[in-house]
């Protein structure tokens, strides 16, 4: 009897130890799930052990702890675990199978919520598996999405106003010299008339030169008007013409800062259907940024000459814009954030960054805007890959 009792005690002790280790392992397993969640619906027990799961996984958790209660805990995770959470979450969900369904839970006030649940299969071991769910309240999501749309429109308007200010400044510089030349020609014509040395040939030359000057000023106004007018409908246009008009709008600013703009065309120009004004806005943003970088670079080394190189290559079913300058360039630290929303290297109130231009190009043209590796001589290089399907 003594031996039998000792054997039963030993077996029960080993069983208790095995159950305890299993409970601790399961607790660590669920705690690992906690470290991988973002902030949707959680369950918690009296030990504040939290998991994100569906019903099968909840039943598995209930077999370990006494009870689980559904609550919202958007701020459960500490900031220190954010990096580990992101890394673990990526590893955990990389091999998962995505699924989705709608769920309409009723809260304590009797209000029904329409939720979209994204779930992935989770297999931490060969024996057990569950489903990790991300639950989104669709009403809140749609309200947030609508607010973001209004914010995007507002930022787009602010970005365009910033470009308009730069273009108006460029037009001011661009008009200054022709108007001064025209004024001098009129004074010279008046002087020759009073001296009775004005000949029909001189008057014809004056008229011809004045008409050319007025045509140049009129074209500048036409380009500016085509830039500011709303661009709601898709129309057929030439990317090459859009590039020429963008350079013409900023030519006055280039001349004022003694910046040479070199244009290289590869292949035969083609036409596509799209929003010409939005493409011109993106090109003007890149050209303005190149000009700003060169001006800032000249302030530290006035002897250097500012140059902007624009290459437009038509090849196959796409055209490629490459805009390069010999300015300050983009540092390694800023390269990672150059397309972040609201990130800009300019002083506060003088720019909204490149995120708006990048989003417009992707949304309207499916054209990615990328920052290429810096050229050997310094500066920055940006590329727009524009599909020609329209």
From TrEMBL:
<keyword id="KW-0547">Nucleotide-binding</keyword>
<protein>
    <recommendedName>
        <fullName>histidine kinase</fullName>
        <ecNumber>2.7.13.3</ecNumber>
    </recommendedName>
</protein>
<keyword id="KW-0067">ATP-binding</keyword>
<dbReference type="InterPro" id="IPR035965">
    <property type="entry name" value="PAS-like_dom_sf"/>
</dbReference>
<keyword id="KW-0597">Phosphoprotein</keyword>
<dbReference type="Pfam" id="PF02518">
    <property type="entry name" value="HATPase_c"/>
</dbReference>
<dbReference type="GO" id="GO:0000160">
    <property type="term" value="P:phosphorelay signal transduction system"/>
</dbReference>
<keyword id="KW-0902">Two-component regulatory system</keyword>
<keyword id="KW-0808">Transferase</keyword>
<dbReference type="InterPro" id="IPR004358">
    <property type="entry name" value="Sig_transdc_His_kin-like_C"/>
</dbReference>
<dbReference type="GO" id="GO:0005524">
    <property type="term" value="F:ATP binding"/>
</dbReference>
<feature type="domain" description="Histidine kinase">
    <location>
        <begin position="170"/>
        <end position="390"/>
    </location>
</feature>
<dbReference type="InterPro" id="IPR036890">
    <property type="entry name" value="HATPase_C_sf"/>
</dbReference>
<dbReference type="InterPro" id="IPR005467">
    <property type="entry name" value="His_kinase_dom"/>
</dbReference>
<dbReference type="GO" id="GO:0004673">
    <property type="term" value="F:protein histidine kinase activity"/>
</dbReference>
<dbReference type="InterPro" id="IPR003594">
    <property type="entry name" value="HATPase_dom"/>
</dbReference>
<keyword id="KW-0418">Kinase</keyword>
């Amino acid at each position: 009897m003594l031996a039998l009792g000792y054997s039963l005690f030993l077996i029960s002790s080993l069983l208790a130890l095995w159950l305890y280790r299993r409970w601790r392992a399961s607790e660590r397993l669920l705690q690992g799930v906690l470290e991988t969640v973002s902030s949707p619906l959680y369950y918690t027990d009296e030990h504040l052990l939290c998991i994100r799961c569906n019903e099968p996984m909840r039943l598995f958790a209930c077999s370990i702890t006494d009870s689980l209660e559904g609550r919202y805990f958007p701020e459960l995770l500490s900031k220190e675990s954010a990096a580990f959470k992101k890394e673990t979450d990526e590893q955990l969900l990389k091999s998962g199978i995505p699924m989705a369904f709608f769920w309409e839970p009723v809260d304590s006030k009797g209000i029904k919520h329409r939720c979209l649940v994204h779930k992935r299969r989770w297999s931490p071991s060969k024996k057990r598996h569950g489903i990790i769910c991300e639950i989104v309240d669709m009403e809140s999501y749609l309200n947030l999405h609508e607010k973001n749309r209004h914010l995007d429109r507002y930022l787009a308007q602010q970005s365009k106003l910033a470009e308009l200010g730069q273009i108006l400044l460029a037009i001011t510089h661009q008009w200054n010299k022709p108007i001064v030349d025209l004024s001098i020609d009129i004074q010279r014509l008046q002087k020759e008339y009073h001296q009775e040395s004005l000949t029909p040939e001189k008057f014809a030359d004056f008229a011809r030169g004045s008409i050319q000057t007025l045509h140049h000023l009129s074209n500048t106004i036409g380009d500016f008007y085509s830039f500011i007018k709303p661009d709601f409908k898709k129309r057929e246009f030439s990317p090459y013409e859009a590039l020429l008009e963008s350079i013409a709008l900023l030519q006055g600013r280039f001349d004022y800062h003694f910046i040479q703009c070199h244009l290289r065309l590869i292949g035969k120009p083609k036409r596509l259907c799209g929003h010409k004004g939005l493409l011109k806005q993106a090109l003007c943003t890149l050209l303005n940024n190149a000009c700003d970088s060169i001006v800032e670079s000249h302030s530290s080394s006035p002897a250097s000459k500012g140059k902007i190189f624009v290459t437009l290559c038509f090849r196959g079913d796409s055209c490629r814009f490459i805009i390069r300058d010999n300015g300050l360039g983009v540092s390694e630290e800023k390269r990672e954030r150059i397309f972040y929303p609201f990130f800009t290297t300019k002083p506060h109130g003088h720019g909204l960054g490149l995120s708006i231009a990048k989003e417009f190009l992707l949304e309207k043209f499916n054209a990615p805007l990328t920052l290429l590796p810096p050229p050997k001589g310094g500066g920055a290089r940006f590329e727009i890959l524009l599909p020609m399907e329209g």
